[in-house]
Amino acid sequence: MFFTVLGPVGLTVAGRTHVLRRAQTRGLLAFMLLRANRVVPAEALIEALWGGAEPRTARSQVQNGMSAVRAQLRAHGGEGMLSSGPAGYLLTVAAEQVDHALFELRRREARASAGWSPAGAAAALRAGLELWRGPVLGGASGSYVEPARARLLDRYLTAREEFVELELRLGRHGEVAAEFLAAVDEHPGRERLRGQVMLALYRSGRQVEALRLYREHRVRLAEGHGLDPGPELVALHQAILENDPTLLTPGAPGAAAGEGGAGPARPARHQRRRTGRARPPAGR
């Protein structure tokens, strides 16, 4: 039995995928999977589903939903996986049975081996990234879904950047440019990835394209938010303009937290706010 939350919420048994009928029940299952092997109080489930605006029937709806989850598990050989008591509900599963837990396991394996086996680390990370089938938490309902989806997506994007760093260390510059150039526009705020792809393009002899990636980003930031790119991206851009020879070696300027390891991404820190430009969108 294998559970998925990094895509449509469901479970797979013997190659066949099963999906719970109601979106709210799928939301309950996904919430339990994200907190697997921990007791989850009924109050936490109510808050997760309704965000403080629960109906009078909330507790009974949770009980009915959990009964539906338990029945689905029992039907596929998962008797006893979901238990309940005065403290709440407990879903007992192994990391290898849940895609998001397996993803984190592969990511830890990659970080542990990155220093001595970047090829092995890259393979482990790619295996983890392939577990993402999107849209994350697909088909689940509940107040917690959108915030949880955003957190999971950030983990995915960070791990993808860690993978790209490893690929650059392995000299796979053309492969990086081909595979991730489109992703730069899909997530324009990820300056780390933009810098990595700029570096891959430059190392592939595509300096003009690398400079265009920077220019487009700078214009977008200036016109949309009144900001400049972050200092690491600025440094990389300058180094590309100057054909800095250190760009051809690991640890090049702007290579997004250094190519010497697959450490966690640092948030982009933009420079001073420009004057006379458009204001940031409301709510920022």
Automatic annotation (TrEMBL):
This is SARP family transcriptional regulator. It holds the Pfam family BTAD. Residues 98-241 form the Bacterial transcriptional activator domain. Belongs to the AfsR/DnrI/RedD regulatory family. It comes from Nonomuraea monospora. Residues 15-91 form the OmpR/PhoB-type domain. Keywords: DNA-binding, Transcription, Transcription regulation. Gene3D superfamilies: Tetratricopeptide repeat domain, Winged helix-like DNA-binding domain superfamily/Winged helix DNA-binding domain. The keyword S-adenosyl-L-methionine does not apply. Residues 267-277 have a biased composition (Basic residues). Residues 245-284 are annotated as: Disordered.
